[in-house]
Write a structure and sequence with these properties.
The protein is α/β, with parallel strands linked by helices. The protein is built from nine helices and five strands. Strands 2-3-1-4-5 form a five-stranded parallel β-sheet, with helices on both faces. Helix 1 packs across helix 9 and helix 2 crosses helix 4. The longest helix is centred in the middle third of the chain and has 18 residues. The chain is globular. The mean pLDDT is about 95. Bound molecules: shikimate-3-phosphate. Shikimate-3-phosphate binds next to loops.
């Protein structure tokens, strides 16, 4: 099985869908943010505060190299900026979780842990800037995607099933 690489904007549901896939398929899952937090033994928010974004992006690059050479049969959930890695296509099939900006923010705000979810993402602190980031990234996400799954108003279970069905044609 080829790796599946989940890309998409912060809060779109990459983590929730990865958890569903872990339960309902043969894929193991890895999350690039979790890997970075383990490597650094501190939270992403703290890494941004202490070292700045550029340092975080270097860590993402190291993770991308490792994924390319060492990981197989895995669903890889990525941070919203990980798509910039130049070897992304070599890591696996790219699946974009697609949803409009307003729907993503609504989804986060309606979550029981909304405050925590917003706090842990430094790039969501300012929603006007976050929308600009979304608009800049969106065409790039589309260009990279082998498969697009529209996740708007879908629960993780439905989206995961749709994803696995679409991926079958590629593996
Ligand atoms: C980022 C997204 C975050 C995390 C970091 C930067 C981004 O991951 O990697 O805060 O640049 O979009 P999620 O997409 O899981 O929120």
């Amino acid at each position: 099985m080829k790796n599946i690489v989940l890309i998409g904007f912060m809060g779109v549901g990459k983590g929730s869908i990865a958890r569903e896939i872990l339960q309902h398929s043969k894929y193991m899952t890895i999350d690039t943010d979790d890997l970075i937090e383990s490597m650094e033994n501190r939270k992403i928010k703290i890494i941004f505060e202490d070292e700045g974004e550029a340092y975080f992006r270097k860590l993402e690059k190291n993770v991308a190299k490792w994924l390319e050479t060492s990981v197989k049969n895995t669903l890889i959930s990525t941070g919203g900026g990980f798509y910039k890695q130049t070897n992304l296509k070599k890591i696996g099939i790219i699946v974009l979780l697609d949803s409009p900006f307003d729907a993503i923010i609504k989804r986060i705000k309606e979550h029981p842990n909304a405050t925590k979810k917003l706090k842990k993402r430094p790039l969501l602190a300012n929603l006007k800037k976050a929308k600009e980031l979304y608009d800049a990234r969106y065409p790039e996400y589309l260009k990279l995607a082998d498969i697009i799954v529209d996740v708007t108003n879908k629960n993780a279970d439905t989206a995961a099933k749709e994803l696995l069905k679409k991926v079958k044609k590629y593996v």
